[in-house]
Amino acid sequence: MPQKRRLAHWLILPTVILLTILAGCVQSKDPVFGPDSRVLPFPSPAKFEAYERTRPTDPWTPRGRTTLIADQSLVVREVDDAGESRSTSTYTFHRLGPQRFIAQASFGAYYGYGLLEIREGEAILFMLNCERVDQQAFGAAGGTVDSGQLPPGQRCSLDNVSDPVKLLSSIAAHPVGVEQKYVPVR
Question: By the 8 A CB rule, do 87 and 146 touch?
């Protein structure tokens, strides 16, 4: 895989934190994916320029630069210029198909999920926004939806789903939510 494409996979991490905090998301108390399915087909560390948009027709808005680094277990963290972690949140990636990955973000008390697609050497991260997920289908699969106060908005829980990987794959087939783009910085 070309260097440009491999670096783009790192782009998802800091965005997952921000979007999960600001909007309702698909989440679980325990990780859906274990260490055996982690992938990291690109080098570490990696620097990216981040952009965001609410709808596919909106222009991209710059969100600044980020540096991501992975450990030997393929767990990724955002770091500052001195190499110190910026947050206690961590991220792992799990392959769905060619150029498509589920991002699993650990926020301590829960895990949040997004879809990362690699396109022409750049990474596009789709947040799996609960309010835009087909909630009837989500409930039929065993998921639960609740409205929280902090942060406000709905949260879709995978905790009672018998096959959460299958449900996440289904949601990721037609991702809904804020998009973020990460462009490698050389």
Answer: no
- pLDDT tens figures, 96-152: 998 999 999 998 889 999 999 988 888 889 888 888 888 889 999 999 988 765 555
Identify the CA nearest to 179 among candidates 4, 64, 36, 61. Answer: 61
Domain ranges for the chain, please list them: 3-184
> Taking all residues of the chain, what is their mean pLDDT, rounded to a whole number?
82
DSSP per-residue letters across 14-32: HHHHHHHHHS-BEEESS-S
Q: How far is CA 20 from the centre of its chain?
A: 9
pTM (two decimals):
0.82
